[in-house]
């Protein structure tokens, strides 16, 4: 076979790679932090670890600490405990006392020379993940360290995968199992969709915030009891809202409901009904009084508001009602306890003077126009009395006497 034929056959069996073709990326080696005074890095132990891991070396404990803080890719820390510059005991203590979960739980291998084996209980008290006692030149030291690092890296990867899965499950969960209401994240997400629909359909959306105060039959109640009773209140709310409405527990003692706003009258009637349900004696258990303070915000007040903005506005108004001890439902553009409030003690099934004044004060006078005849009927006795008082010499209007 000629040289040319040999070259041609080799080319056929191993065709040249195009210079523009992407090459498969090599998987990055897991990173290991090695903190020692130089003895380990110069030994066969370090060389063995380097073959399978990306080793980052530091010569002192403070640099090791900063590396762990800033480099989240570090999977395992290996520290020579007896090295004066490393101060391994201090480094291990700082790792385990960290407020950052990733750092607090990072696997740490403590290396002790045989001469320092008496320090083993101290290392164990600092919760080192692994303790290896031996001198670096020992024949089996490299094999032992390598096997342990490999296991710890796998454990760290498994732990991170579990944390990520748990986070995905939490973000995917839409219902709170304790109250059977939407989680706050899911609530805001769904309200955002309703807002988009309302803007396209030129309709309105109301967000009702209800702050709850429990009056216990005994003077003191432990937090666990209050929490359990608040869950009962949440379940009572969930069973009371309509299928087309959305509800969530937005704070420890606070709930929010989003509902299509078909006019202020209907919306306030709905809010008053929710108050009645929650303040029922059985809402939080026998003998417990439930007091509610309510704030309302609507899309029509500001069309550019997002779901979170609308909820925060309703929460602010409910907090205002609670801070002033007001039983009024706070609504409208006014932030005062008088203007823009609605007294739910009035008959909720029809328009009355109190509701009309609240609507006018919140800039919704157009919704009052259709009810003017009904309002005039309510005001006629007052108007007759005013006319009588303005004409003291005239005979009393017999109609006034009849009203008395």
If you had to describe this structure to a student in words, what would you say it looks like?
There is one protein chain. The chain is an alpha/beta fold and about 400 residues long. Helices cover about 45% and strands about 15% of the residues. It contains 15 helices and 11 strands. It has a 5-stranded parallel sheet, sandwiched between helices. A 4-stranded antiparallel sheet has the order 7-8-6-9. Strand 4, helix 6 and strand 5 form a beta-alpha-beta unit. The radius of gyration is 36 Å and the shape is elongated. The N terminus and C terminus are likely disordered.
Radius of gyration: 36 Å
How does the helix and strand content classify structurally? Answer: alpha/beta
The largest sheet, given as strand count, sense and whether it forms a barrel, is: 5 strands, parallel
Low-confidence sequence ranges: 1-25, 334-340, 342-350, 396-404
User: Strand content of the residues, in percent?
Assistant: 15-25%
Mean pLDDT: 79
What would you call the shape?
elongated
Q: Kindly state the percentage of residues in helix.
A: 40-55%
In order across it, which strands form the biggest sheet?
A: 2-1-3-4-5
**How many angstroms separate the termini?**
129 Å
Order of helices and strands: HEHEHEHHEHEHHEHEEHEHEEHHHH
Count of strand segments? 11
**With helices defined by DSSP (H or I, 4 residues minimum), what is the helix count?**
15
Q: Which features characterize this protein?
A:
elongated; alpha/beta; 404 residues; 15 helices; five-stranded parallel sheet; disordered C terminus; four-stranded antiparallel sheet; disordered N terminus; 11 strands
């Amino acid at each position: 076979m000629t040289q040319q034929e040999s070259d041609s056959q080799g080319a056929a069996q191993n065709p040249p790679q195009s210079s523009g073709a992407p090459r498969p990326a090599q998987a990055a080696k897991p990173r290991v932090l090695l903190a020692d005074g130089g003895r380990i890095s110069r030994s066969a132990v370090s060389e063995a670890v380097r073959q399978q891991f990306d080793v980052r070396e530091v010569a002192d404990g403070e640099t090791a600490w900063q590396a762990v803080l800033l480099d989240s890719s570090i999977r395992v820390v290996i520290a020579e405990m007896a090295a004066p510059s490393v101060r391994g005991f201090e480094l291990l203590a700082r790792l385990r006392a960290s407020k950052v979960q990733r750092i607090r739980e990072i696997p740490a291998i403590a290396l002790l020379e045989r001469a320092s084996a008496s320090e083993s209980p101290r290392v164990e008290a600092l919760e080192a993940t692994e303790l290896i006692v031996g001198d670096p030149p020992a024949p089996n030291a490299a094999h032992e360290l390598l096997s342990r690092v490999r296991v710890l890296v796998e454990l760290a990867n498994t732990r991170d995968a579990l944390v990520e899965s748990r986070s995905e499950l939490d973000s995917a969960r839409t219902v709170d199992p304790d109250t059977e209401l939407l989680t706050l994240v899911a609530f805001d997400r769904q309200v955002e969709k309703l807002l988009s629909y309302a803007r396209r359909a030129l309709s309105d959306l109301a967000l009702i915030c209800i702050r709850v105060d429990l009056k216990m039959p005994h003077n003191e109640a432990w937090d666990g009891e209050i929490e359990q009773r608040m869950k009962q209140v949440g379940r009572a709310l969930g069973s009371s809202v309509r299928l087309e409405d959305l509800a969530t527990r937005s704070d420890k003692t606070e709930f929010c409901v989003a509902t299509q706003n078909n006019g202020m009258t209907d919306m306030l009637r709905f809010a008053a009904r929710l108050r009645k349900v929650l303040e029922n004696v059985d809402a939080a258990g026998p003998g417990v009084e439930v007091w509610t303070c309510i704030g309302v915000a609507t899309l029509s007040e500001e069309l550019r508001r997002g779901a979170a903005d609308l909820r925060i506005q309703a929460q602010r108004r409910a907090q205002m009602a609670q801070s002033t001890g007001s039983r009024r439902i706070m609504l409208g553009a006014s932030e005062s306890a008088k203007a823009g409030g609605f007294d739910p003690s009035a008959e909720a099934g029809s328009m009355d003077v109190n509701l009309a004044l609240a609507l006018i004060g919140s800039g919704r006078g157009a919704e009052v126009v259709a009810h003017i005849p009904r309002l005039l009927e309510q005001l006629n006795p007052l108007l007759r009395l005013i006319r009588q008082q303005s004409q003291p010499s005239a005979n009393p209007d017999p109609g006034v006497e009849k009203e008395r």
